[in-house]
Write a structure and sequence with these properties.
alpha+beta; Nuclear Transport Factor 2, Chain: A; six-stranded mixed sheet
């Protein structure tokens, strides 16, 4: 009887653990930490193979490799003082977004990060840093 009880407990544990492990992991905390520290390499770990990148001096669709180099230059030119997520959410179309404020020196940038679930993982498909006046 005891053995049957333990088997049932084990099976119940598996039933609850499997759905959680099959869900895509949300990389939002890692992405926010990468922006907060100005780490373009870590941020690029979450780039889609191509993404729409908007910065004060450009607005275009770039490959992951090119976007990584552009973000390295951006973080070099505008090192982070602080980064705060003001709002985040998700939609039914397997997308997540966050809107934030990035401060570098005396400059303030409104940020927008759009993630889309691709191949079971969330990837950045759109990234914007727009300078505020």
């Amino acid at each position: 009887m005891k053995a049957l009880f333990y088997i049932l407990i084990f099976q119940a544990g598996i039933m609850f653990a499997l759905p959680a492990s099959m869900q895509a992991q949300d990389p939002s905390d890692d992405i926010n930490a990468a922006i907060r520290s100005g780490d373009a390499g870590k941020l690029a770990d979450y780039f889609n193979s191509s993404l729409d990148l908007t910065l004060p001096d450009q607005d275009q669709s770039l490959s992951k490799a090119h976007a990584t180099q552009v973000m390295k230059k951006f973080f070099s030119d505008h090192p982070p003082k602080s980064y705060t997520v003001n709002h985040s959410g998700s939609s039914r179309e397997a997308t997540k977004y966050s809107i934030g404020t990035y401060i570098s020196g005396t400059k303030l940038f409104k940020t927008y990060v759009l993630l889309k679930k691709t191949g079971g993982e969330y990837r950045i498909v759109q990234l914007q840093f727009e300078e505020s006046q």
